[in-house]
Amino acid sequence: MSVRRFWQLLASWICGIVIGIVGSTITLLTFGAFSRTLSPWIVRTWGKSMLRLARVTVSVEGAEHLSSDTMKIATFNHGSLLDSFLIASIMPSGSVAAVKREMFYYPILGLTMYLCGFVFLDRRNSARSRKQMAKACKRMERNRLTVFISPEGTRARTHELLPFKKGAFFLALDSGAPIVPVVIEGAFDLHPPSRWTTDPGHVRIRVLPPRPTVGLSAESIPDEIEALRKLYATELATMRAEQGKPVIAPVARAA
């Protein structure tokens, strides 16, 4: 490992720990009274700090689709560890993220996410995950929340999209909230799987118009999954073509 990569890794951990401790302390001292605005601010600060340390710049198109103070489900494609920092850096007030349950046990980071109201999903137990989604739905209705969630569920090992899981769509079914697709292009190139550090570079995020879910039913969820996955594949191909990159994300049947 080069000296630059070593210091990037060390600085990232120190940054995460410091922001986690400060954020957790502030949240506890205020008894969560300002969690709707304070929690996203803490998360954004962490995300932007981590991107600066990695020397990654970001351009966001269509951010207005996330700005309205209404319930939304913001889905994003997930092919890189860098996605966590990217999504954190653009989270508006009144938003939380859905993450895998295992992250709760990460030192300091897990406590910070819990205090910031993150939704922890058990990927190994569908019944428990469904109950967690139902609780998240009630929180969305009560606090007009936007929930960020990756329909792939985990990071892809290649540029190709993984099959989309049903969690985000059941949340849409229960809440009636629209789905706002957030398309990330370039993160995989800068921080592919099995890497501990990030190459400097630029990432584009394109937020697409909301997709209404009124009329969505359990029976129509597979069709909506397929349609959304095709939309992502098409948009990613378009974004890569705009930059002269080879198109390497073929459309395959969603599971």
Automatic annotation (TrEMBL):
<dbReference type="GO" id="GO:0006654">
    <property type="term" value="P:phosphatidic acid biosynthetic process"/>
</dbReference>
<dbReference type="InterPro" id="IPR002123">
    <property type="entry name" value="Plipid/glycerol_acylTrfase"/>
</dbReference>
<keyword id="KW-1133">Transmembrane helix</keyword>
<feature type="domain" description="Phospholipid/glycerol acyltransferase">
    <location>
        <begin position="72"/>
        <end position="187"/>
    </location>
</feature>
<feature type="transmembrane region" description="Helical">
    <location>
        <begin position="104"/>
        <end position="121"/>
    </location>
</feature>
<keyword id="KW-0472">Membrane</keyword>
<dbReference type="Pfam" id="PF01553">
    <property type="entry name" value="Acyltransferase"/>
</dbReference>
<comment type="pathway">
    <text>Lipid metabolism.</text>
</comment>
<keyword id="KW-0812">Transmembrane</keyword>
<keyword id="KW-0808">Transferase</keyword>
<feature type="transmembrane region" description="Helical">
    <location>
        <begin position="6"/>
        <end position="34"/>
    </location>
</feature>
<dbReference type="GO" id="GO:0003841">
    <property type="term" value="F:1-acylglycerol-3-phosphate O-acyltransferase activity"/>
</dbReference>
<protein>
    <recommendedName>
        <fullName>Phospholipid/glycerol acyltransferase domain-containing protein</fullName>
    </recommendedName>
</protein>
<keyword id="KW-0012">Acyltransferase</keyword>
